[in-house]
Specification:
With about 240 residues, this protein is an alpha/beta fold. It is built from seven helices and seven strands.
Length: about 240
Amino acid sequence: MDLTGKIALVTGGGRRVGRAIVGELGRAGMHVIVHCHASRAEAEAVAAGLPHATVAQADLRDRAQCRALIEGVRRDAGRLDLLVNNAAGYRRAPFADEDESAWDDLLALNLVAPALLTRHALPLGLSSVVNVLDVGAWQPWRHHAAYASSKAGLAQLTRNLALELAPSVRVNGVAPGTVAFPPDFTAAERAAITGRIPLGRIGDPADVARAVRFLAGEDFLTGVILPVDGGAQLR
């Protein structure tokens, strides 16, 4: 499928993986709406480097702001062809010590917001959704109960919506492995993680971005969750 001239909304598009996705879709000829929350300056810098990009700001933990974001897309662009649900929160803590607000925040941003944005976007002619998950959706990790549970929920949402919204909307997911380390990971933790990857290295946000573009453009794929992890799920 030719993506040229189509409209895409990428949530969390100002940093890390989101930034790479915005660039990849922009180079494919799409008009990209770069969503941000706290990273307005970064989002504007990304948009400035593309011929057809705009910035929209919203706190996606707030359901009213989810609706307002899509309403802004309708008002400014008139339609939405591709929704990339990339924005996500991340926290690491022992389960017994985890703050209850972490569950509220992570479920609101990582699971509920993608569902609401997808539903609100349906009247705009939406034809493709790509959800950015994590291999933690199916691999249990110590000290990641809230985060991993939110991503597991997003995986199931991806499959449910692929079935329910067919044939008019395709819903797929990409599940990155390690493509950038959280800043609090020690050198020993980084080495241990890298040692478990069959390809012998961590990935790059550009690897995820290319996978998103692939899923967005292949019109006979739906319900697919594509691991981008160097084979880590094989261990």
